[in-house]
Amino acid sequence: ATFSAGEMRDPGRSLPRGLVYGTSAVTLLYLAVNVVYARALSPAEMAASARIGEDAAAALAGAFASRWVAAAILFSTLGCLASTILYSSRLYAPMAADGVFFRYVERIDPVHRVPVRSLWLQAAWTVVLTVSGTFEQLYTYVVFAALLFHVATAGAVFVLRRRLPEAPRPYRVWGYPWTPLAFVAASLLLIGNTLIARPVEALAGLALVAAGLPAYFLWRRRAAQSFAPQSLQ
Length: 233
What we know:
It is a single chain. This protein is mainly α. It has helices spanning 11-40, 43-48, 52-61, 63-97, 116-130, 135-163, 178-197, 199-231. The protein folds into 2 domains: 1-116, no CATH class; 133-221, no CATH class. Helix 6 (135-163) packs antiparallel against helix 7 and helix 7 packs across helix 8. The two termini are 38 Å apart.
C-alpha cells in the first residue's frame, strides 16, 4: 500500500487508515482460519498436510467442501497477485524519477496513468525468478529480503524524528518509541530464525540485496552530477 502513496489524494489520511484497518482485518481472518484448522485436524495431520485448507474442509464437511475451499484459495491467490502487481510496479518508476534506476521505466501512460514500462520490466523479472528456483526457495528469498527493508524502514522513524524534529507529520507513530522498537526486534528475530533454518536461501537473498548496492551508489552519483550544473544556474 505504501508504494502507491504518491498516487493518493490524501496519503496522510488514507494510508494510515488503510494500513490499520487492512492489517487488523487480515490478522483476525488469519487467526480465525487457524482456529478452524486446529479444530479440524490434529497437530500431526497439520504438519503432514500439503494442502491444509482443503484437508480441513474435507474433515469438517466432506470432499465437496474441499473442492470449494480449493477454488476459494485459488481466487484469493489471484487477488494477492493482482495487488502485488499493482504496488510492486510503483517502485521502479519513482526510483527512475529520482535518478537511481533506468530512466526508461519512468514513463507513465498518459491515458491509463499506469507505469507501463515498469510493469513490463516487472513481468520480465518475474519470468527470470520463476525459472530460477522452486516456490519455497523464492518465497524465502523474498521474505528474508523484505524483512531487511522492514527493519530499515522502521529504523528510519528514529532517524527522521531526530534529524527532522519539526517536519510536518500527518501521522505520528502510535506508542513511539516502543511500537517501532518492538517491530524491529520482532523482525530481527525472524531474520535470525531464517538464517538458522534456511541458511542457504537466506544468504542468497542477502547476496541479491547486496548486489544492488553498487548499482544504487553509481546511479546516485550520476544523478548528483547531472543535477549539480542545473542547481548552479
